[in-house]
Design a protein that fits this description.
Length: 284
């Protein structure tokens, strides 16, 4: 059974009426039972004819034009446009009475050369779909034809099975406010590798900076360290790491200080492997 469509339009001028006539012919040539007031084979009582047609259609096409919007929103002037004013009132009534049914079936249509600003405001031309007819051909009216005939351009793909996902690893505990940047946990590394990595950092390059480095660690650790910062860098670092590895939280303290001072040098910090979870002292 063919789709029945009513064309609601205003007689702006002869070119506009001719364009509506082309749309009417085009739809009927393509299997759409389009109805409009140009079929005047018999005398009609127009208000009753409008009511009769709108009560039996599947879709209403509101053909946008300046006169249609003006008469739909402000009424007819000087006795001209009474039919559009009446049709628009009936269409609004259909939307108000059953919006769920009629909103997808009352379609604002733009013929060539028309703009969305000519669509009546009650059809929401800015926030809803407007159907453009670029030419009276199947490609030029494809959007409208697809909607009228229920032929989707991009059907939704079939649903596949839901993937089974294992649990994620719990996140590390959040550091207290003011405790500095979070500490990253690295893979294990031998003592000599850690010493070599620390020896490349600026903070370990002079007795003065090594003393400062030791002080920052002591502050976090909460207990003194008997480490000589004037010793050779490698000897200083070996003594420091050995002492810290023997204390609970010692390696965590050095990790925090290193990451705070050298977060902009990830390649140097990455190799500082076992900085958090080593409990036994390093061997020599």
């Amino acid at each position: 059974m063919s789709v029945r469509v009513f064309l609601s339009y205003a007689h702006d001028d002869d070119p506009h009426r001719a364009a509506v006539r082309e749309l009417w012919y085009f739809l009927r040539r393509n299997g759409i039972d389009a109805r409009c007031d140009m079929d005047t084979a018999q005398r009609r009582e127009w208000t009753r004819w409008m009511e009769h047609e709108l009560a039996r259609v599947d879709f209403v096409l509101v053909i946008a034009s300046p006169a249609y919007r003006s008469r739909a929103e402000h009424g007819a002037r000087n006795g001209s446009g009474n039919g559009v004013e009446y049709e628009a009132a009936l269409i609004r009534e259909m939307l108000y009475a059953d919006r769920e049914r009629w909103f997808p079936r009352i379609l604002p249509v733009l013929l060539p050369g028309r703009a969305a600003t000519e669509v009546p405001a009650f059809l929401l031309p800015t926030s809803s779909t407007v159907y453009r007819v670029d030419s009276f051909t199947v490609p030029g009216a494809e959007q409208l034809l697809r909607h009228l005939t229920g032929q989707q351009e991009e059907p939704a793909p079939a649903l596949g099975p839901v993937p089974r996902l294992g649990p994620r690893t719990a996140p590390a505990a959040t550091a207290p406010v003011g405790a500095g940047p979070p500490v990253q946990v690295y893979a294990a590394a031998p003592l000599e590798v850690l010493i070599g990595a620390l020896a490349r950092l600026p903070i370990t390059q002079s007795p003065m900076t090594r003393a400062h480095f030791t002080g920052m660690i002591v502050e976090r650790l909460g207990e003194p360290l008997d480490i000589d910062p004037s010793a050779a860098p490698v000897d200083y670092l070996r003594a420091l790491l050995t002492a810290l590895a023997a204390r609970p939280g010692g390696m965590l303290a050095v990790a925090e200080v290193v990451q705070q001072l050298h977060s902009d040098r990830p390649d140097d910090v990455e190799i500082l492997g076992e900085l958090v979870y080593r409990d036994e002292p390093f061997g020599r």
